[in-house]
Amino acid sequence: MLPLDPQADPGRRAWVACPRCNDHQGCATCAERRTCATHWRYLLSNVGSLLHLQCPTCTHVWDHETHFGATRTPWERITSGLRRP
Ligand SMILES: [Zn+2]
Ligand SMILES: [Zn+2]
Q: What CA–CA distance (Å, rounded) separates 21 from 70?
């Protein structure tokens, strides 16, 4: 297992399925595409709509292209980026 990236910050999350462990499978909250409190990824960085992510479950690191503009509504559903509750 890789160590967590030093940029990993629980305050910057993205709700994207992990391609390695698929830990969201069987989760009702994830199935409704809601912001699940258990299954989220560290948002290490992003360039436009390309997200650099790390999975807290299996520590897999990958890039995810959202095809959304950074200011569009769908983007805000995928990430909680700089917004804290
Ligand atoms: Zn994973
Ligand atoms: Zn979930």
A: 27
Residue 85's pLDDT is 44
Ligand 1 centroid vs 1 CA: distance in angstroms?
11
Splitting the chain (85 residues) into consecutive groups of 10 residues, what average pLDDT does each group show? 90 92 95 91 90 96 81 59 48
- For residue 58, CA distances in Å to 2, 23, 30, 39, 47 come to 8, 9, 18, 12, 23
Residue type for position 82: L
Structure-block tokens of residue 28? 């009702």
Closest ligand by atom to 28 CA: 2
Q: Which ligand is nearest to the CA of 41?
A: 1
Ligand with smallest separation from the Cα of 25: 2
Half-sphere exposure of 2 (CA within 13 A, CB side): 13
What pTM did the predictor assign? Answer: 0.80
